[in-house]
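Researcher: Next sequence.
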Amino acid sequence: LIWVSKLQAEISLSTVEAEYIALSQSMRDVIPLIEQIDEMDTIFNDDSPKPILHCKLFEDNNGALELATSPRYRPRTKHISIKYHHFTEYVKLKKVSIHAIDTREQIADIFTKGLPTVTYEYLRKKLMGW
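Model: Next structure:
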């Protein structure tokens, strides 16, 4: 579990772009871990079973989910910088999977948004496993 909250350095023109940039930035922490485990497997070339590493990401914005999982050119998102598309190769290789999650179930919101008491308590219970 990796969690970070910080202000985006670039201005987004849409919520899809903002969510896609956040997805890309989160993958910057995960990709080196994936590469390191793959590299360790080549260094310790023995008969022990290879660890299976699979990263699950949860996205509550359908547009960002679509943009991340299907590599098609879209006129409305052509302005998104190429530097944010780096993780799509890992999605194609199935080392990373991106799943849709309902906004009401997005536990990360407890850390990043001011929530109504009922929503906060619901997400807190989910986070704590109660």
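Model: The chain has a mean pLDDT of 82. The first strand starts at residue 55 and ends at 59.
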